[in-house]
Design a protein that fits this description.
Largest sheet: 12 strands, mixed
Number of strands: 16
Pfam family, one: FAA_hydrolase
CATH class of the largest domain: Alpha Beta
CATH architecture of the largest domain: Alpha-Beta Complex
Strand content: 35-45%
Oligomer: single chain
Helix content: under 10%
Keywords: Metal-binding
Shape: globular
Protein name: 2-keto-4-pentenoate hydratase
Order of helices and strands: EEEHEEEEEEHEEEHEEEE
GO molecular function, one term: catalytic activity
Number of domains: 2
Structural class: mainly beta
Family: Belongs to the FAH family.
């Protein structure tokens, strides 16, 4: 299975696999993943709008995952209530200074991370998606814990799909595009601390579970933005589009 999505249909939210332009309902992909299986089909194709591809209980951000930092890589928490889906307009805060769009690789956890190490991390990961970690960095001088800078409504656009074929060791392309113009072009291979090492670090302090998200940082893929632009985060072949107001 390549891509997993959540779709709002007239009959409710369905988890689907994406087959071209078709959405085919599947059984719970996390239950199947824990069994070492692919989720079986659960009905005929449906029509609907794409939501965020998972509903995390925990969203973890990785900080200092870039060159030249005096402090080591650390993790921080972002409210899962800031998660929104693709093509949802996000209203930028006017009272928090500059807004920065941050294109990041987001890893979606597939099962309880007890026992996760850097070497076996792939056994715990359902797949990868794109995330725009919208931030208000001017607030960090007053709030070093990142609560204010990261808590805007809808400040975690996620999606559109979970790609289960992207590996933790892949040098996956990572781009930030604003109003159709590329502003940052890098790849997962440029993270100083690997995806595996970041996952092992997080799992060494707290247990994550199915659907939780770890955002891997944006050392080379961040740019200031203003209201009224459309931001796209491109991870491999995944393209996450977020209009702003």
């Amino acid at each position: 299975m390549t891509r997993i999505a959540r779709v709002q249909t007239p009959d409710g939210v369905r988890v689907v696999r994406v087959d071209g332009d078709r959405f085919i309902p599947i059984h719970d992909p996390y239950v199947a993943f824990a069994r070492g299986e692919e989720a079986a089909d659960a009905g005929t194709p449906v029509v609907g709008s794409v939501l965020a591809p998972c509903v995390p209980t925990v969203v973890v951000g990785i900080a200092q995952n870039g060159p030249g930092h005096a402090s080591p890589v650390q993790a921080w928490l972002k409210s899962p209530r800031t998660v929104t889906g693709p093509d949802r307009t996000v209203r930028l805060r006017r009272d928090a200074g500059t807004t920065v769009a941050e294109a990041e690789v987001a890893v979606v956890v597939g099962r309880d991370t007890t026992g996760l190490t850097a070497e076996n991390a792939h056994e715990y990961v359902l797949g990868v998606t794109a995330v725009n970690d919208l931030s208000s960095p001017d607030r960090s001088t007053l709030d070093p814990r990142n609560f204010e800078s990261k808590s805007g409504e809808g400040y975690t656009p996620l999606g559109p799909f979970i790609d289960t074929t992207i590996g933790l060791d892949d040098d996956t392309s990572l781009r930030l595009v604003v109003d159709g113009e590329p502003v940052c072009d890098t790849s997962a291979g440029r993270y100083p601390m690997s995806l595996r090492a970041c996952l092992a670090y997080v799992a060494g302090w707290t247990t994550l579970g199915p659907g939780d998200v770890v955002m891997m940082g944006a050392p080379f893929s961040a740019s200031p933005i203003g209201p009224g632009v459309t931001v796209e985060v491109v991870v491999g072949e995944l393209r996450l589009r977020t209009p702003t107001a």
